Amino acid sequence: MAHEVVERVRDTEMLVVLGLQTGGVAFAELLAASLFDITTRHVLQGTLDVSFYRDDVGQRPFIASAVSQVPVDLDDRLVLLVDDVLFTGRTIRSALNALGDFGRPRAVQLAVMVDRGHRELPIRPDYVGKNLPTSLSEDIVATTEGVWIGTRGAS
Amino acid sequence: MITSIRGRNLLTLDQLSDAAILEVLDTAELFVEVNQRTIKKVPALKGRVVASLFFEESTRTRLSFETAAKRLSADVLSLAVASSSVKKGESLRDTIATIDALGIDAVVMRHSSSGAAHQVGGYVPHVRVINAGDGLHQHPTQGLLDVFTVRQVLAERAHAKGSETGKEMFAGLHVLIVGDIRHSRVARSDISAYTALGADVRIAAPGTLRPASLEEWPVRVVDDFDEALEWADVVGVLRLQRERGTGSFVPSLAEFTETYGLTSERARRLRPSAIIMHPGPMNRGVEIDSAVADSPAAVIERQVSNGVPIRMAALYLSVNGTAEETPS
């Protein structure tokens, strides 16, 4: 995936890799490390927490939040959002709104490890680790160790 | 014991478990980051209405609450009591009913009567009530921001993040609260918060300024204030509340300063690591010397700045959460 990013982005100088709290953070770190291996240039990275931007507050259980750390003003940057699983697209919508409070990026791209389908919003990832057709009754967990599919609610 | 303030009123700290307090502190940690941004606003309470009702004068608490509500994108209805119908003799119940009729989600209120916020909670059960100080009873957000400030300072010294330390910084921490305990709702909230988190709290006050029901409090009274200063990790100085007639509880202000004021001379007995706190507004030269208040050991301004993230956390959890999701 890092190679794909380098191919498309070419110049990583203006790139900022942001992992979405909490599932995307570990992947963003891995991706930034791989980008360094390929380009031998350090890539700016940070984290983004979207809990205060969600459109479904009060409709779903409270989500544990974590702190946002955006390393620079995002004006004219190329932002690469990284998340573990892409599902309805609502987290990404919240993330796009959150980004606006940190500046006006030149472009925003999205990398996800797993795309499980069932989008509720017109959002499309730029880089996908694995397309994984799922049923709504399933739960997907993706960590840097692997991916698990289980029955919803069973955990 | 209440284990989370999600979807609940915040009226007092003495019913909150350590988990409930830590949840507010950890959430406030996130809002500290929001307050450092160029755009200090998140849409968490967009479209919600917060009424700010201060029946008693206040600068920092009111500004702090209103700033907090605005940074969460809530709309704020601010009632200037001095120029309102309250002056025409309108009852508390009618004032609340009127404001409720405008459509509100939360009330932040300060009142000179103990229990006023609790009473309002009964009038409008569908509205979240945040107590911003009621009489001699409680001032919950002040207690929360005080423990938040202590944890922040101690975590910084240990090069750790506050949220990672949980309540470990408070285990056996020596907290000395000094001054007008009797009239202080801040003291009551501070004592609740510190003890819930595991600190060892002692108080120093002249006999006339100790509360009547002292035996029921989870604190020890120190006989020798000067000696206790050497023991303390944290010293919370309280304001001598002259507006509550405290003047008549002490022979003279000078005598109070002489015996229980944190003077420069007395402050020399403190450990170098001790933290000095004051909820403000200060009577400089009465309960605390100017030089002490402006010394590096004093974190008084930090207490004020922490007021905003703590109140954002309280509003966010109370207004946005639902009681059903509270872990039991």
Write a compact overview of the structure shown.
The complex is a heterodimer of chains A (155) and B (328). With 155 residues, chain A is an alpha/beta fold. Chain A is built from three helices and seven strands; from the N terminus they run αβαββαββββ.
Task: Based on the coordinates given, report the CATH architecture of the largest domain in chain B.
Answer: 3-Layer(aba) Sandwich
> Widest sheet of chain A: strand order?
2-1-3-4-5
Helix content of chain A: 10-25%
Residue share in β-strands of chain A: 25-35%
Key structural traits:
heterodimer, A: about 160 residues, alpha/beta, Rossmann fold, five-stranded parallel β-sheet, two-stranded antiparallel sheet, 3 helices, 7 strands, globular, B: alpha/beta, four-stranded parallel β-sheet, 9 strands, about 40% helix
Account of the 3D structure:
The complex is a heterodimer of chains A (155) and B (328). Chain A has helices at residues 2-9, 25-39, 90-99, and strands at 15-20, 44-48, 78-86, 107-115, 127-131, 138-143, 146-151. With 155 residues, chain A is of the alpha/beta class. Chain A has a single domain, classed as Rossmann fold (3-Layer(aba) Sandwich), CATH 3.40.50. In chain A, strands 2-1-3-4-5 form a five-stranded parallel beta sheet. Chain A has a two-stranded antiparallel ribbon with strand order 6-7. In chain A, helix 3 links the parallel strand 3 (78-86) and strand 4. Chain B has 328 residues and is an alpha/beta fold. Chain B folds into two domains: 18-138 and 307-325, Rossmann fold (3-Layer(aba) Sandwich), CATH 3.40.50.1370; 140-304, Rossmann fold (3-Layer(aba) Sandwich), CATH 3.40.50.1370. Helices cover 38% and strands 13% of the residues of chain B. In chain B, strands 7-6-5-8-9 form a five-stranded parallel beta sheet, sandwiched between helices. A four-stranded parallel beta sheet of chain B has the order 2-1-3-4, sandwiched between helices. The termini of chain B are close together. Chain A binds chain B through residues 49, 51-53, 57-58, 61-62, 65-69, 73, 97-98, 101-102, and chain B through 6, 27, 29-30, 33-34, 37-39, 41-44, 72, 163, 316, 320-322, 325.
